[in-house]
Specification:
Blueprint lengths: L5 E6 L2 E11 L2 E6 L4 E5 L3 E5 L9 H21 L2 H11 L5 H9 L5 H13 L4 E4 L2 E4 L2 H33 L9 H14 L6 H10 L7 H8 L9 H5 L8 H12 L11 E2 L5 E5 L8 E8 L2 E9 L10 H9 L3 E2 L4 E2 L4 H7 L7 E11 L5 E18 H7 L4 H19 L9 E6 L5 E6 L4 H23 L6 E3 L15 H10 L4 E3 L23 H14 L8 H35 L5 E10 L2 E6 L4 E6 L11 E10 L4 E6 L1
Parallel strand pairs: 8-15, 9-15
Antiparallel strand pairs: 1-2, 1-5, 2-3, 3-4, 6-7, 10-11, 11-14, 12-13, 14-15, 16-17, 18-19, 20-21, 20-23, 21-22, 23-24
Helix pairs in contact: 1-4, 3-4, 5-7, 6-7, 6-8, 10-12, 14-15
């Protein structure tokens, strides 16, 4: 090849003609028909032929010649019926070089233009020929058919992508557009992108749709789903991310409805103690809808008989039924600020299982005889039948304790029980609790409540007592049980001195995690030698399992579970309970950030919890929210200091908050 040669090459997917102006080693300096000089590697040349043109001719003359050559070759290419050539060569299973094939089509020895035209046709071909060892080999008919089908599918996919991208763009712009084919698949792609981000296995496919629609925002999938009404603007993505069950299987709900209408025979009816004459009462929060515990108090010759009565879910929900398996999968009811996810369908959890006032209900009753000073004289656990006579809220009880003799005595006795228990080595972390609620108009309300009110303490201690007695009974009787325990703290904790928020937060970090195990172990925080859960069977699966074991043993029936089966249950409910805890923590934080997002630029007082490298951990005492304050080396703060910070940026969905010293 030398200056003056005509060459063809690809440039941005287009075949161009050019003339070689000079050689630069292994590269060619070329003038293209587009009036652009470029340097080409020889391997980029598709076709080369000598010409009578001198590179010294006027530039426009060269360009005119190149343009005319390109038009001529393109016209020749259009005249080539490549399929006819393929049929001829495929029948004979013959492979040819491009010049020979051009001669076969055009007849005689092919000209440079004819060779180049055939080369263009072959390069455009997707199905008929393949290039191998400088020869064009005809594909077998079945290969051609397969390639054409594949190409057709690809064209359809591209058309679908174009339509889908146009629809997404219209949705983004608030305009109307025809719904694309495969809308359901597209929505699922967007949902998974919004939930899992780049970790989703189909993220690249979803991103291709968004790029086609010219939507580059990181939160585009989420915002599109909000505009389409698939997601709410405050959609709880953790529900999707953690794969939390949100709906009951239709068969399980149907089973619950049927049980509500026809409960079936009570397996322990003949052994139930009739306690319907007892003056039982429930004490719960204002928003409680499923009541699973009630209290009673009777005066005796030696003091008092305290009754802790727990709804008997086990008499209605049998092991291994679909309803039971759904409850096991959930492990616990989850209460979120905006809604609740019950462990059992509302049709029974808020009706036939619930200890509603003036309704006879089967129960498991813990009957404890106490002295005047709350010393335990005797106790028993019995299957029972009760009728709640009074429903009270915590707030009502707090107001009535000083006036109502029964409530006053209940409070006095449980206070003494608690003092005695804590004197044996327990420790109560008295952190307040933050609550987010919404008015009927949707306005958010954030409150911090003291969990040490007389009413809450009364109920909590009665439940601790019942759970301890259940664990003690099951351990002594050697009934397989899932126990709860807590090892000693990771660091020593002073249990005597009064503590502010800083020390309470430090204590929380010192505490060891509560664990569940099949062997009874001490519970350090409660100061008890063994402990289990048995007082919330409507809301916790562990309590339901404990009830089943207790009732079976009390009534001399076969135990529902052995150690191995309890181990299997534990392997299911432990991660589910951790998942529920994480969900509640993260959702509460989301709403607190949402609360702060409407207060950007405002100043807030914060408590310094901890000094870390290059930043401080702070706490907003009024909403118990932890944040970080970036700090230059010149800033010196100490744990316990109060500082004033400004809210600079809050992004609830991204879990981001930025503050600076005010």
């Amino acid at each position: 090849m030398e200056p003056g040669y005509l060459v063809e090459f690809f440039d941005q997917r287009r075949i161009l003609c050019g003339i070689v102006l000079e050689l630069k080693g292994e590269r060619l300096h070329v003038l293209a028909q587009t009036n652009r000089e470029m340097t080409l590697a020889r391997k980029r040349v598709l076709h080369a032929s000598p010409s009578r043109l001198s590179p010294q001719l006027p530039r426009q003359q060269l360009l005119d010649h190149l343009e005319e050559t390109a038009r001529r070759r393109e016209a020749l290419r259009a005249s080539i019926q490549l399929e006819e050539l393929w049929e001829l060569l495929a029948q004979e299973d013959q492979a040819l070089a491009a010049p020979e094939m051009a001669g076969l089509w055009f007849g005689g020895e092919a000209t440079a233009d004819q060779e180049a035209a055939l080369g263009r046709a072959l390069l455009e071909d997707r199905f008929l020929f393949k290039y191998r060892e400088e020869l064009w080999v005809p594909n077998p008919p079945e290969t051609v058919a397969g390639l054409k089908e594949q190409w057709q599918r690809e064209q359809e996919r591209l058309e679908e992508m174009e339509a889908a991208a146009a629809w997404l763009r219209a949705v983004w712009d608030g305009e109307k557009a025809p719904e694309p084919k495969g809308k359901a698949h597209l929505l699922e792609l967007l949902r998974r992108m919004a939930v899992f981000g780049s970790e989703d296995s189909d993220y690249a496919q979803g991103k291709a749709y968004l790029e086609k629609a010219r939507l580059a925002a990181a939160d585009a999938p989420f915002l599109l789903l909000v505009r389409l009404g698939v997601f709410h603007e405050d959609e709880n993505l953790d529900l999707h991310r953690l794969e939390v069950p949100r709906e009951f299987a239709p068969e399980a709900r149907s089973q619950a409805v049927n049980l509500g209408h026809q409960p079936g025979p009570d397996p322990y009816a003949s052994q139930r103690l009739d306690l319907t004459a007892l003056a039982c009462l429930t004490i719960d929060g204002e928003r409680t809808r499923d009541f699973d515990d009630a209290l009673s108090l009777e005066e005796t010759a030696s003091g008092w008989r305290l009754g802790v009565h727990i709804a008997d879910v086990s008499s209605l929900v049998q092991p291994h039924t679909l309803l039971d398996l759904e409850a096991q999968e959930r492990a616990t009811s989850i209460y979120l600020p905006e809604h609740r996810l019950p462990m059992l369908p509302e049709e029974i959890s808020e009706d036939i299982l619930s200890l509603l006032a003036e309704k006879e209900r089967p129960a498991l009753s813990f009957l404890i005889d106490l002295s005047q000073e709350a010393e335990i004289l005797d106790w028993e656990i019995r299957p029972s039948l009760i009728k709640v006579q009074q429903r009270l809220t915590y707030q009502e009880v707090d107001g009535l304790i000083s006036q109502d003799p029964r409530l006053h005595t209940l409070s006095r006795l449980t206070t003494l029980l608690k003092e005695r228990r804590l004197a044996r080595g327990g420790y109560e972390l008295k952190l307040p609790e933050v609550w987010v609620a919404f008015t009927s108009q949707g306005e958010m309300q954030v409150t911090v409540e003291d969990q040490e009110t007389p009413a809450r303490s009364l109920v909590a201690e009665a439940m601790v007592l019942a759970n301890w007695l259940a664990a003690r009974f099951l351990a002594v009787q050697k009934v397989p049980t899932i126990f709860r325990s807590q090892p000693e703290p990771r660091e020593p904790i002073n249990r005597e001195e009064p503590k502010g928020l800083l020390e309470l937060y430090r204590d929380r970090r010192r505490l060891s995690r509560v664990v569940m195990d099949l062997s009874p172990q001490p519970h350090w925080g409660l100061g008890l030698e063994q402990y289990t859960l048995a007082t919330s069977p409507i809301r916790r699966y562990l309590d339901l399992v404990t009830h089943r074991q207790l009732l079976a043993h009390l009534c001399s029936a076969p135990l529902p579970y052995n150690h191995e089966e309890l181990g299997q249950i534990l392997s299911i409910i432990e991660p589910a309970m951790r998942r529920a805890g994480l969900l509640k923590t993260r959702r509460l934080r989301y709403w607190l950030l949402k609360y702060l997002a409407s207060r950007l630029g405002q100043k807030k007082e914060a408590l310094v919890l901890e000094a870390l490298p290059h930043r401080y951990r702070l706490l907003f005492p009024d909403i118990l929210l932890e944040v970080f304050l970036p700090a230059p080396a010149s800033l010196k703060l100490n744990p316990g200091d109060l500082v004033l910070v400004r809210l600079d940026r809050v992004l609830p969905r991204e879990d981001q908050i930025k503050v600076s010293l005010a």
